[in-house]
Amino acid sequence: MATKYLRIQRLRRVYVWELPVRFYHWLNALVLLALIATGFYIANPLAIQSQREATNQYTMGWVRYVHFAAAYLFFFNFLFRLYWGFVGNKYANWKQFIPTSGRFFKEMWHVFKMDILMLKGKEHMSVGHNAMAGFIYFLTFIAFLVQCLTGFGLYAAMSDWWFPHLFSWVPSLLGGEILTRQIHHWAMWVFILFVIIHVYLVFYHDYVEGRGEMSSMGGGWKFIEEETFEENKPLTPNPETKELVTAEPKK
Question: 163-171 long-range contacts, Cβ below 8 Å, gap at least 24?
Answer without folding.
Answer: none
